[in-house]
Amino acid sequence: MRALVTGAAGFLGSHMVDRLLGDGHRVIGVDNFLTGNDCNLEHLAREPRFEFLFHDITEEFDPGPVDLVFNMASPASPADYGAHGIETLMVGSCGTRNALEIAKKNRARFLHCSTSECYGDPMVHPQPETYWGNVNPIGPRSVYDEAKRFAEALIMAYHRYEKVDTRLVRIFNTYGPRLQANDGRVISNFLRQALNGEDLTIYGDGSQTRSFCYVSDQIEGQIRLMQSDEHTPVNIGNPVEFTILECAREVLAVTGSRSRMVFEPLPEDDPKQRRPDIAKARRLLGWEPEIELREGLQLTIPWFTASAASARENENGRVQGEDGKLPPRRETASRPRRTGYPLLDPRLAASSD
Ligand code: UDP
Predict the structure, then answer these.
(1) In sequence order, what are the residues at sequence separation of 6 or more whose Cβ sits closer than 8 angstroms to the Cβ of residue 257?
(2) Is there an atom of ligand 1 within 6 Å of 245 CB?
(3) I need a surface site. Which of 73, 259, 305, 342 has the fewest CB within 10 A?
(4) How does DSSP classify residue 260?
């Protein structure tokens, strides 16, 4: 089959591209590199079954015939959507609509990456898909939470009114290789800090909880959902819950680092607890995660070690010298790079470094 992956240069998008190619599909990836990174696709430079379209999906586009659409484009870390609030709202609304129109025109199966942020700061714990959530609609996280909630409503509308064959995955905190070392997420920050011998920054008192899913488990859950006939949202995440302090201790244990912990203010509207109820995924998809946090961290460390080395080599890189909270962004959209894989955008094909 031919699959479209929006957000293909992102953390999850690039892993989905790899998985689909591994399963024998042809893939067209789309990204505007707002928060994605072309390095995540460089290994596909000579892969004939992969094409890349440099494009902002909030503008209409035609990727040609497709059988599967994976709508994975969006800034996703709190630092990234904090820095790109309007783009986040636009990709969740206009971008999702454009992706749905492509699925409709091609009668393609459609899967959308939604989020545990739909539950906000949850009053129900753990969170089942039936919980409607507790979201501040005007707070700093609302650009992400409400974009994703709007996208869910839009997708259900396309399913009900336009008969598009849709699926919704609610992703809980996921980590692994290709996380950007300074995207500001907790695993990114702690691993980077521990490996560099810097203090680990605990926001608040560290008693808030998260449940961390390794990327290969996440992708497997999404593939199974795409293969299923379930149209209502399904949680995909690891149900083992850690306080942020416990998470910091795990990172220190796995890295052997002697970094200290320092306490910083808790960001506004930071959810106090989060843990997926995965009974639905177990029942419908026969899915559950296999990789526990300690093993997943071990699998992720080599990526962070390599990132740190390349950041040291590049004095202007994103990693070096940043505190990880509000990273500066490379404006790749204004200086597109040729990366070697087949390019469909003639403007990009005509440009040079
Ligand atoms: N956090 C922290 N130190 C950091 C980064 C994050 O204590 O350096 C906390 C953050 O306040 C939140 C949790 O870790 O409670 C998870 O944050 P993350 O940004 O990874 O994603 P979220 O689950 O909030 O979307």
Answers:
(1) 194, 195, 197, 251
(2) no
(3) 305
(4) -
**pLDDT (tens digit per residue) in 255-292:** 999 999 999 999 999 999 999 999 999 999 999 999 99
Structure tokens of 305? Answer: 């070690």
Q: 37-74, pLDDT tens digit by residue?
A: 999 999 999 999 999 999 999 999 999 999 999 999 99
Which residue segments constitute the domains of the chain, with CATH numbers given?
Answer: 2-350 (3.40.50.720)
Q: What is the pLDDT of residues 128-182, one digit of tens each?
A: 999 999 999 999 999 999 999 999 999 999 999 999 999 999 999 999 999 999 8
**Nearest atom within ligand 1 for CA of residue 173:** 23
Mutation test of ligand 1: which of 171, 185, 252 has the most ligand atoms closer than 8 Å to its C-beta?
185
Q: What is the DSSP string of 126-177?
A: SB-TT---B--TTSTTHHHHHHHHHHHHHHHHHHHHH--EEEEEEE--EE-T
Total Cβ atoms within 10 A of residue 19: 20
- The question of whether 203 is a catalytic residue gets the answer no
Q: Per DSSP, which regions of the chain are E strands?
A: 2-6, 26-31, 50-54, 68-71, 109-115, 165-171, 174-175, 200-203, 209-211, 213-214, 234-236, 241-243, 261-264
Edge-first strand listing for the sheet containing 50-54: 50-54, 26-31, 2-6, 68-71, 109-115, 165-171, 234-236
Alpha-carbon gap, residue 189 to 195, rounded angstroms: 10
> How confident is residue 315, by pLDDT bands cut at 50, 70 and 90?
low
In terms of Cα–Cα distance, which of 117, 266, 127 is closest to 202? Answer: 266
Does ligand 1 have an atom closer than 6 angstroms to the CB of 270? Answer: yes
Whether 290 contacts 217, CB under 8 Å: yes
Side chain identity, residue 191: L
Is the per-residue pLDDT at 110 higher than 90?
yes
Q: pLDDT tens, 233-248?
A: 999 999 999 999 999 9
3-class secondary-structure state, position 69: strand
Beta strand 261-264 pairing with 213-214: unpaired
